[in-house]
Amino acid sequence: MDDRTRRRLKRLMMWAVIILGVAALWFWTTQPLFGRQAAFEQGPSVDPERLEAHVRALAEEMVPRDSGHPENLRRAAEYIRREFDRTKGEVTGIDYQIGGREYSIVSLLLGPQTQERIVIGAHYDSPPGSPGADDNASGVAGLVELAHALSSARLPMAVELVAYPVEEPPFYRTQAMGSFVHASSLRRRGVRVRLMVCLEMIGYFNDGPFTQSYPFPLFRLTYPWRANYIAVVARLREGRITRRFKRAMRAACSVPVFSFNGPSLVPGVDLSDHLNYWKMGFRAVMVTDTSFYRYDHYHGPGDVAANLDYGRMAEVVRGLYGAVLDTAKR
């Protein structure tokens, strides 16, 4: 073999390694699914009007819901507790103080008292200056209706649904966050968590062209240009469970479901309560409509209930129901 042929083979091998590396990275970050799993035969009936009623109660009657208005946060916590009380589960909570103000975590435990559990959480506070319909009354509405649906299911393990205060600034990324308090409590008590699912903005959809943006232009090669889907987001190490969770969601609802597994260097990957479960060593995913990558009213006064699509929100809750049951069966 002459030198020219050797050089050509080396270049071919180099390109082959690069292509295989890019393909492997694409596969692990997007967790592609091929084909569609058969839908669940008996999914829950989720009423879009009930979802809208929850969002309007929080985003119109209990505003502002930021940390500087604990009276409205208290009303929101009481509202969630009343909804949880209507289920067949055990309603508990954690009250704690920050700077002399008291905040409440509201928790509902469903299913048998197993040593391991699934945790599903959403924050009920809103950013300062925003009514917080999508961020995050939508997540709370989904949490409440998911609680009602799971209350009638035959669960093989414990499922805990949790509503948190003070996810938003000025307490974001501090130990004052309700999710940090809850996650550290689980860790301290030695509770095993199979998976934590964070519901962070699940109500805004747009079928218009080029309505979905991304942190990097290359994302457009593998993800939709229309803001008409729901996303499952997690770290690289949670690739397999993300893939399974996405597959189960897709099988149980009509809204398209995509996923992304990547490092926190990608803006948005760790921007919610699931971050605190990662800190405690638990596996966690975020289910989101991608927030500021599609929603112009993110953290603004225009984040109102009229902007949301409650029919598609109901489908997302149906998808969550199927994915939670699938995760509990393993």
Write the layout of secondary structure elements.
Blueprint: H1 3-30, H2 48-61, H3 70-85, E1 90-98, E2 101-110, E3 116-123, H4 133-151, E4 158-164, H5 178-189, E5 192-200, E6 230-234, H6 239-252, E7 257-261, H7 274-279, E8 284-288, H8 310-329
Parallel strand pairs: 3-4, 3-5, 5-8, 6-7
Antiparallel strand pairs: 1-2, 2-4, 6-8
Helix pairs in contact: 2-4, 2-8, 4-8, 6-8
Helix/strand/pairing category: alpha/beta
Strand order of the largest sheet: 1-2-4-3-5-8-6-7
The share of residues in extended strands comes to: 15-25%
Number of helices: 8
What is the general shape?
A: globular
What is the CATH C level class of the largest domain, in words?
Answer: Alpha Beta
The rounded distance between the terminal residues' Cα atoms is 55 Å
Number of domains: 2
The largest sheet is: 8 strands, mixed
How many β strands by DSSP?
A: 8
Helix proportion range: 25-40%
The poorly predicted ranges are: 16-23
User: What is the CATH fold-level name of the largest domain?
Assistant: Aminopeptidase
CATH architecture of the largest domain: 3-Layer(aba) Sandwich
Mean pLDDT: 91
Q: Rounded to an integer, what's the Rg over CA atoms?
A: 21 Å
The named CATH superfamily of the largest domain: Zn peptidases
Order of helices and strands: HHHEEEHEHEEHEHEH
Word description of this protein:
The protein is of the alpha/beta class and 330 residues long. The chain has two domains: 1-30; 35-329, Aminopeptidase (3-Layer(aba) Sandwich), CATH 3.40.630. 39% of the residues lie in helices and 18% in strands. It has eight helices and eight strands. It has helices at residues 3-30, 48-61, 70-85, 133-151, 178-189, 239-252, 274-279, 310-329; strands at residues 90-98, 101-110, 116-123, 158-164, 192-200, 230-234, 257-261, 284-288. An eight-stranded mixed beta sheet has the order 1-2-4-3-5-8-6-7, sandwiched between helices. Strand 3 (116-123), helix 4 (133-151) and strand 4 (158-164) form a beta-alpha-beta unit. It is globular and about 80 Å long. The protein starts with a helix and ends with a helix. Residues 16-23 have low confidence and may be disordered.
